[in-house]
Here is the input.
Amino acid sequence: MPHYLTKSRFKLALECPTKLYYTNKKDEYADERLDDAFLAALAEGGFQVAELAKYLFCEEPLNELINIEEKDYETALANTQEKLSTTDKLIIAEAAFRYENLFARVDIMQTADNELHIYEVKAKSWNSTKDFWKVSKGEARLDKDWLPYLQDIAFQKYIVQKVNPDLKVFAYLILVDSDSPATIEGLNQLFRIEKQVEKTIVRVREGINRSSLGNIPLRIIPVDKECDWIYSNTLESGLEQNYSFEETISKLSQAYSENERIWSPIGVKCKKCQFITKNGDLNLKSGFSECWKHWAKLGDYDLKKPLTLEIWGGLAGNKSIAGDAIANGKYLLSELEDVDFWPSKFSHTEPGLHPAERRKLQIDKVKLNDSSYYLKKDDLKRIFDTHSPPYHFIDFETTSIALPFHPDRKPYEGIAFQYSYHLMDEMGNIEHKSQYLSLEPNFPNYNFLRALRNDLREKGGTIFRYHNHENTFLRLIYTQLQREKEGMVPDRNELIDFIRDITNSKENDDKWTGINDMVDLWKLVLAHYYSPRAKGSNSLKDILPAVIHDSIYIKNKYSQPIYGTERIRSLNFRNHIWISEDSGMNPYKTLPPVLDGFQNEDLEQFIPAIEEIAEGGAAMMAYAYLQFSDVTPAQKELIKNALYRYCELDTMAMVMIWEFWGNEIGRFR
Here is the structure.
C-alpha cells in the first residue's frame, strides 16, 4: 500500500508530527483511539450532512451516479480521471487526486469550462454571527477554532491545483446553517446510517429528490481568500520551526513516505495522545513513552510517577499551567513549585480551597507521597447547615442534531432526551425517585421539562446538579419557549416560571437567580474535597472511584446487594452490588454497554472534549444510534434499559459523594 500523506494524516500530523510515525502500525504501537467510521458518523452527523449536500448540486444524486465508490487509491484515481475525460461539465463526489506523495478525496467537485470548484462538507454549525477571521492589534488572522477546517480544504485545493495547473481551482466549505430552519417533517430520518462489513454508508430513503427536501439548511461559503492566507503564512505544525504551507506538507510527506520519525516537542498536547498502552498490553509499544523518554530523559520508573500533565488546570484563565511547566523543563508533578501556578495577584474571600490552593495541595501530596484525602469537616458542617433537606439530585442527557426533526426547527437545536432523579431525606434514606427517557424521533424538550417540573415543584429542600450542564440546558429550553408562537405551547408561562425558579442567568439583558436555584456539587467538590486518587480530574466518573477509595462507609455499604431493594429503591436495578473486586471497585464498570460491542468509556472519545458534555458521551452516541440507524425492537429495548441504568448511576454517584460527606460529620450512619 502506498505511503500517501492523505488529508486525514495531514490533520493528524498538525496535532503532532510524531504521530505520523506511529499511525497505521497497530501490530507494533498501541492505539487507544477507536478508528470506527460508523461511530464517528453517529457522533458528528458528517455522513448524513455530506449526503444531503449532494442535493445542492443534483436533483437525484444516486440516479445520476456522481459517486466514486472505490476505496482503493489507484482505482479511485483512475475512475476520477475517466469521469473528468467524458464531459466538460459534471459533478463528482469523492473525486480522488494525487500529487507526488499527497492524496486527497474531495467531497464534491464541480467542473465548468476551465474551472474546478471543490467543496469540503463539514457537519459544523455556521450562522450570521460567525466569521473565519479574528482581528488582533490591527492584524487579521484566521480564527484558531476554524483553522483546522480551513487547512483541510487548503490541503485539497493545493493538490487539485497542482494536478490541474491549466485550470482555475476554487474552494468552498459547506457548513450546517443554524439560522436556516427545515421546512419538511423528518428531514433527519431520510438519511439512515448503516454499518456494512468493510464500510459505513448512508442509506437514502427511496424516492427522495431535491424537490422533496424543501429548504436544505446548508450554506456554501467560498474560502479562497482563507486558503491564500494559509499558503502565504507560516504554519504552526510542531516541526523544529514554522515553515510555509508547501514546505510543511513536503516535510511531512517525505517523513511519512520514508518511515522517518519527526521528534515533535512534548507538551500539553500529549495528554490526548492515543498511542499509549493504557490497557497494559505488553506486546505493543507506547509511542507516548518513547516521546517522553526522548525529550524528558525519563526512564520507565520515572514514567510511572505522576507527570506534570496531571496538574489540574481548571479556572486558570488562558494560562496553560502544564504546558508552561513542560516548556520550562519540568516534567514530573513533584518538580512544580509555587512560581509555576500561583497567581501574581492572589485574593480569596470565599470559604474552601482557592484553585491555586487546590493545585498546591495536589503537588504537595505527590512530593510527600501522601495518598490521604483532603476534607475540611468544619466547612462540611456549614455546607450541610446551609443546604436544607430533602436533597434532590438530577442529571440530564442531552444532544444536538445537525438535521432537524420537524419543520421550523433549526439545525443543532439542543435536545434534552433523558434525566434521572434521586431523592435523599434528612436521615440519609435514599430512593431513585423518577426518570424520563424519550427515544422517539421527535422534539422532546417540553415534555422533558413538564416531567421534571412535576417531579421537583413544591418539594422544598435543595436541588443538586454536577457542573453547569443542567443550568445551561434549562436556559436553552427557556429561550426555545420564548421563541414559540403565541398559543403553540399552552403552558409556556408555567414552564418558563419553573425554569427561572431552579436556575440562574448572568446574561446582561436577562439576569436572575431562582429561589430554588440548583446547587453545583462540582463547585463544592472543588472547594472542599481533594483526593489523589482522582489524579487532578474532577469529572464525576473519576471522583466517584476516589470517594469509594477514601470512604470505608461507602465501600462497605455498597459492597452489599442493598441497591434495588426496600432499603434503597431503584427503578432499574434489583439487589445490585455497586462495589466489588470484579468491577475494579468502580460502579461504572458494573453497567451494561449502551451500544453492543463497545465499552461505554470508549464512546466518550467521539464527543467534543468539553468536560460537562463528555460525561454523557455514551448516552449521546446511543441516542444517535437509535435515531439514525435501523434497529430491531429487541435491540431498542436493550439500549433503552442500558440508558436508564447509565443515567441512574450519575445521580447515584452524586448521592454517594453527599452521603460520604454526611457520614464524615456524623449526619448519616
The two ends are 65 Å apart (CA to CA). DSSP finds 23 helices and 20 strands in the chain. The chain has three domains: 37-232, 382-520, 529-664.
